[in-house]
Amino acid sequence: MKKIILNKGKEHSLKRFHPWVFSGAISERSEKVADGDVAEVFSTSGEYLGTGYCSQGSIAVRILSFEQTEINLNFWKRKIADAYQLRQQIGLSESTATTVYRLLNAEGDGIPGLIIDFYNGTAVVQAHSFFIHDNLALISEALQTVFGDKLKAVYDKSEETLHGKNEEIVKSESNYVFGKNETNDVAENGNRFYVNWEEGQKTGFFIDQRENRKLLGNYSKGKRVLNTFCYSGGFSVYALKAGASWVVSVDASRKAIDWTNQNVLLNGFDEKMHLSHVGDVQEYMKTAADNFDIIILDPPAFAKHQKAKHNAVQGYRRLNESAIRKIKSGGIIFTFSCSQAVDRSLFESTVMAAAIDAKRKVRILHHMSQPADHPTNIFHPEGQYLKGLVLQVG
To answer: Are residues 57 and 77 in the same domain?
Structure first.
């Protein structure tokens, strides 16, 4: 196994179990290290610190274990079994009301660069590094061992997350590495959804909003609801199921709107209660009616890296100001940011600035985050990416 030695004083973060080693912390390597190689990390005094895989970029090593271990099939079985046990503990793995959940959440479950989402029998795997992608066969075998006959298929959706990470392009397109798809129909808190993981964003569905969609239901009875950046209509379905009088769903993607309409019909609703609109959200807000009781703002990540943070903050500010100006007096806004570069404090300050610009009274009713199947490693706060607020506008 390859060996990496850190500069003096750079071992402290690993001793605090932070799973990243930055390139500037490295003093020397035992030999040439390629993207995806497994290496052991040591301090200048020779103390073992962790075992991880190497990659290009500022994060040079991502730690897989703080104990010396071989990265083999048994390693993957242990990690996936541990993640599955947590989902059993929080009541997801055996639920019939909810058949979609995140099985493994990267650093939150001790495997940086790996996402596995479970969709009613199909495990959708997304590798964010070449090391993870190179281990897909072992990961698939481990999944089959842990799930048994509950697992019908394993789908690799790594092409979009790996493309461009270095000069080598992943040659295999996204495909099934085990079994075949038997159904795209999933349940979430008793609501039904069609999920297209082959063509959809991320792994197919925004599972991290499950509890926030449920919270929306508490406010929706008899209300007029505007769901912006609706994607496949998750919030829209929850609002309708809770008794909303009228729901409008807006997204720039025609395909997303088609999925929204499909999910609305799948749950027994029709155009008398729901309207879809394909178009830019900000443009729609300029001409939309001002009689909405609830507005949902769930935009895509405006900042995927630190360099884009300033523009992202301005984007969130403009979007929230538009909604605060538009909503009825006493109305409720669900507003979110999934940009990792924009932390909770900055997001809340940005929403406050929008409220000042809109010159309306705003109260915070709830602070929202990602659910328990998207755990955050306490030693890796960067994993807390989803933040949201429920606002009441006077």
So the answer is: no
E strand residue ranges, the chain:
2-6, 20-22, 26-29, 38-42, 48-54, 59-65, 100-105, 114-119, 122-127, 153-156, 175-179, 185-188, 191-194, 224-228, 246-251, 274-278, 294-297, 331-337, 362-368, 387-393
Range of the domain at 7: 2-65
For residue 167, is pLDDT > 50?
no
CA distances from 156 to 14, 117, 151, 174 (A): 31, 11, 14, 5
- Cα 57 to the chain's mean position, in Å? 22
How far, CA to CA in Å, does 379 sit from each of 20, 108, 261, 341, 368?
Answer: 10, 9, 42, 17, 21
Residues marked active site are found at 338
DSSP, res 150: G
Model pTM greater than 0.70? yes
Same domain assignment for residues 130 and 102 = yes
What mean pLDDT is predicted for residues 43-65? 95
What is the rounded distance in angstroms from the CA atom of residue 101 to the CA atom of residue 126? 14
Residues 171 and 216 in one domain: no
Judge contact between 43 and 26, C-beta under 8 A. Answer: no
Q: How much of the chain is in helix, strand and coil states, percent to nearest 5?
A: 35, 25, 40
Same domain, 212 and 91: no
Residues 251 and 147 reside in one and the same domain:
no
Least confident of 92-96, 124-128, 166-170, 313-317: 166-170
Find where tokens 């055996």 sit: 94
Average of per-residue pLDDT values in the chain: 94
Looking at the structure, tell me whether residues 228 and 364 fall in a common domain. Answer: yes
Count structural domains, the chain. Answer: 3
Residue 106 · residue 115 · CB < 8 Å: yes
pLDDT at 169 over 80: no
| pLDDT tens by residue, 344-366 | 999 999 999 999 999 999 999 99
Split at pLDDT 50, 70, 90, the class of 28 is confident
Q: Looking at the structure, do residues 60 and 87 belong to the same domain, yes or no?
A: no
